[in-house]
Amino acid sequence: MADCVRFVHRGQVVTLSDVPPTRTVLDYLREDRGRRGTKEGCNEGDCGACTIVLGTRVGVLGVTEAESIQYRAVNACILFVTALDGKELVTVEDLAGPDGTLHPIQQAMVDHHGSQCGFCTPGFVMSLFALYHTEADPDRPRIDAALAGNLCRCTGYRPIVDAARAMGRAPDTYTAQMTETLALLRSIERHETLSHPGGTAFAPATSDQLADLLLAHPDATIVAGGTDVGLWVTKQMRDLGTIIHIGGISDLAGITHTNGQINIGATATVTDAAEILSRLYPDLGELFRRYGSEQVRNSATLGGNIANGSPIGDSMPALIALGSTLVLRRGGVTREMPLQDFFLSYRKTALQPGEFVAAIRVPEPSADRLFACYKISKRFDQDISAVMAGFGLTLKDGIVTEARLAFGGMAGTPKRASRAEAALIGRPFDATSAKEAAAALAQDFQPLTDMRASADYRLVTAGNLILKWQMEQALPATATRVPAFARAIGGAA
Amino acid sequence: MSARPPRSPAPIPFPATHQNIRHDSAPLHVAGTARYVDDMPEPPGLLHVALGQSAKAHARILSMDLSAVRTYPGVVAVLTAADIPGMNDVGPVVADDPIFAESLVEYVGQSLFAVAATTRIAARAAARLAKVTYEELPAIISIADARATDSHILPPKRVERGDPLGTLSTSPHRLSGNLAMGGQDHFYLEGQISMAIPGEDGDMHVLCSTQHPSEVQHLVARALGRPDNHVVVEVRRMGGGFGGKETQASLFAAVAALVADRTGRPAKLRLDRDDDMVMTGKRHDFEVAYDVGFDDQGRILALDIILESRCGMSTDLSGAINDRAIFHADNCYYLANVRITSYRYKTHTVSNTAFRGFGGPQGMLAIEGVVDDIAHHLGLDPLSVRRANLYGGPDRNLTPYGMKVEDFIADGLLDRLESTSSYQARRTAIAAFNAASPVLKRGIALTPVKFGISFTTSFLNQAGALIQVYSDGSVLLNHGGTEMGQGLYTKVAQVVADVFGIGLDRVRITATRTDKVPNTSATAASAGADLNGMASFNAARTIRDRLSAFIAARWGIEPSALRFANGKVMASDNIISFDDLVRQAYLARVSLSATGFYATPKIDVDKETLIGRPFYYFAYGAAVSEVVIDTLTGETKLLAVDILHDCGTSLNPVLDRGQVEGAYVQGMGWLTMEELVFDAAGRLRTHAPSTYKIPGCGDIPDHFKVDLVNQPNQEETIHRSKAVGEPPFMLAISAYHAIKAAVAASGGNGPVKLDAPATPERVLMAVRARQAGAGA
Ligand SMILES: Cc1cc2nc3c(=O)[nH]c(=O)nc-3n(C[C@H](O)[C@H](O)[C@H](O)COP(=O)(O)OP(=O)(O)OC[C@H]3O[C@@H](n4cnc5c(N)ncnc54)[C@H](O)[C@@H]3O)c2cc1C
Ligand code: FES
Ligand code: FES
Description:
Chain A is an alpha+beta fold. Helices cover 31% and strands 21% of the residues of chain A.
């Protein structure tokens, strides 16, 4: 067993053996290391002031030429130090050269007046650093996506976008030192369980180790990306008891596409899952682009989104509408169930003590099935949905044979609208049946009024989304959605 | 950490004024080496402080059991009202803001006690362990509650001219309506923070993120029960302020100082974001009701308008804020017969406070709503109704409060922007689009801004500066203004460098400190550069005059013949470098430090009637916004923005542009997505960025054009520039009216009823109301 967290920082391996397992990377950096360039703006993953970049070794094992480092931005404020294990850490202080020469991104931000008060700036610089290393010539939608998790209250963003466009892609020291860094990353690769000296926190390296650990500690709190759990600590100051950190389990992170199914390992990040799902279902691409922010998606897992059992989680309505199933494992026993059956009541799931979510299985598209999803929120990007809808229909000779209308934000769990579905089955999907299905929602749901929306708005909008979907089938050439990105005047349609 | 300072060499232009010069801290910002209060090295023995908060909106405290707080591991001290040696208050104008509640609580989140511990996490955890029992009292939460119970924090005020009521009844058209607009959280990215370091013999040094170091100094001294001269408040920079650190920083500074004083150890109080949002005041939300009479062209003949605001539990700056709302309820429009009535309600919610625009946006949104309603009532282009009502000509230049508008340029701005933005062609294209589009509807609006510059509390319009020239010719600049991102330090340094004819790199800007320049006003009311630029100019002139007299005497010429430029001082054949001149002046025992002072001329207003000249001048602007809405979901998207804004002859166009863009986006957030939701018990439900949404990068259209009007201020401001902090905030009113135009296109006719912020929910409900009205 390993007993310390190891990561690469500034070309060296750093070993942490005495840091409490729920210490956040932000507090570790600012308070333990005195590196105060990374800022705290909210301590809950929403503002991006704490953005750091983690480098992960990717590529073909053993084939040195095919290896590289993937740099991704994450929020340090809700990331526990254990998540650094096996990674390269990059913070804002690391970018300038030893003589103080600014990194091209930093220089672009200066040249384009991208900072005013400067408090958000380190976070923007780090998000742009990740973009710099992933995208050769990012266009505006790509820039918006990369920056959706960074709030700036001063500039109005225009100068930051200009800086992003101008930063170029000249190789930097990180590119130049990739070989050395890869060697270091390889040297700290871990195959055994990491056990915190206090015996209250573990980070298994394989799913078998996880299965055993969970049998031994059925009450343990599982932490995957920590984008939900992190807030239990930073905001609610909850004691998590024994922790099992599963973010580092590589055999649970795989995504495969076989036998008409996409099998997504529970610890695959939303970023990785979205990459394949959006190719198959364009609407899912749009959904995942608006799901949290790049920083959140880079940490968050699909398994965590589902296991969390929140009534407002975004992925569930869409995945239920697609007829997805869930693979659960306890010890050596696995079982598979339809995703919709996993949610029992408000925040209560079918997960047994000692059991964990192993994978999500999503069917691939087929010609006789229609699919769409809609996310409705106060702010377009990086906002929790007021209403989330996932719609699936199977048609035979123009007649609906199966309907799956699933909603989030409408009930205590992600839930299908059985009455509305019934209104469609056995009929053509036209304006009349859509209208009846929309009207039937009032029998399916009694939504709540809260700070995000009123019950009335939720119900009306949910119904309107069915009408909209039908209209989109009938009038495919008509613009029916506000554009994610306003290109220019008249770019609406 | 990289030990070297970040390097980003830039050419040093001369003269610096009117040049595009980057923010002085930009290289530090991007490198993460710019220090905010929480980044300062922590002194040994530092204690971290957290506050216990009230769980009730209005209640008597029956008992407060703090034993679990005191015994929590790491806790060093717990302070309550009884532990305050001085006055238990931080009210800026009226003493009604207790530091710790004694027997009565008046909002959820009100501070009850402080706990100091060896770590921040321990302090925060301990603060939650208090056992408080309350006897609940009836709570007044909303404006409606306050109206119904006649709950006022200050008496109502009214400005009236002509015969509004008589003219209303004889007007060809008459319309009444109402409008509610929400408040706004500042959401400065750096939350409230203070660190107090006790010195010898009762001295206290406070590092504080505040726009108003002098007031913090005075209130900290008062809480400690000591004269002002024992307290030094220092602020190098804030991570944003926007008005939220004008009066709101005092509570946290006072608590940190009280802990430091009590324990003899340095103490830091940094709020968690959620606590910051719950505990600090916000922009006032308003409800407006109006009755207006007008002619066939939409020209207003008479207006009776009521402005009601939620002030919260204490007075704070609500008087001046509501005064400013009155002063802007005309915007650019001449109102011959008018009555403006302002109610300032007391509620059991956090005390609302200064926020960019300071009541101006609320007054302006009110009158723009009236004009828009008139246009929709008559079926006219709102722009033509706006034009018909503009100030202009000798009989249409008097504001309701009796100040003559002598510098009006909004008419020209409207014409120019209408043409450069292709407003009319776009309107036509939009109508065609809407006719063919069943779900999406687009809308466009062009709105003007006229904003009065000066503190309406006249005595605040003063500033001081201290300049020291060292014997090597380098210059150290201090003034009373604070840096919160707006670039004030840079602008003032430009002014000073030019007085001495030296490069900007020779002027060092240091933290604002109350022991360098005393009795300063808040950096607020957009007046930072006007006031401090002029005070610093005067200080620099004093030293330059001494240098001139010295070298002129030596050269045997008139001082007026001297020129200071490019680091040199010249007169006909004589030339000396500035540095050498300084050295020689020093040897000749010439004083090389000076203070400067400035008081804004011409202003004079009656505090009670509000009649007079509250403003030195007006700043103007105009904006066109275009949006698209989804009539099935109420979602909106901003498609394009064109702005023309008046900064006089700008001291620094690139920084001013930054202010214009940032202000527009912040205003757009206020009017479209930022929603403060209080529940019936008075709890703020949107107390974190997860539920309170400010605009993000994706909300900004690619077409975001800003042009500055480069035209000298008629008044003698510093280099004829104009203030720029607040006025452009109100350019965003165009975005809100563009949404209304799109809603109007969804069916029905007449005025569009849409409260702000125009969230998807409000937009959808407005669309449905119109479609129902139209029988659709
Ligand atoms: C700023 C921000 C924005 C967000 N935006 C969105 C959004 O737009 N849409 C949305 O749906 N969500 C959003 N979220 C919520 C969150 O990101 C998701 O729920 C996320 O997918 C959770 O994944 P995780 O890996 O971080 O889970 P964690 O926080 O690690 O865990 C969440 C829960 O699942 C359990 N768990 C995790 N993995 C497993 C497993 N394999 N087996 C059994 N139990 C497991 C944990 O014990 C815990 O109870 C947001 C969160 C933040 C902080
Ligand atoms: S501090 Fe706001 S996202 Fe981390
Ligand atoms: S520069 Fe102030 S928040 Fe971005």
